[in-house]
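Changelog note: in this version the structure field was regenerated for every chain. One regenerated record is shown below for reference.
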Amino acid sequence: MRKIIGKKEVKEATGLSDTTIWRLERVGRFPRRVNTSENRCGWFEDEVEVWQNSLTRGIEGRVIQQATCGTK
């Protein structure tokens, strides 16, 4: 069973603000929230982890690319 985490946990895990989460989600760059009840929502924990891992790989990829850029 997939675990759903609330906004507080997402903010703690990612270091992002409410507004940044909303903006990234709106443009498809952050996992979409799921409604757990009429007045509550959350995110699948595994999707947030995948998003975090993709960021890390993206940063490492840019560092590697910058290090090799311009070498002959």
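Spot check on this record: Residues 4-68 form one domain. DSSP finds three helices and three strands in the chain.
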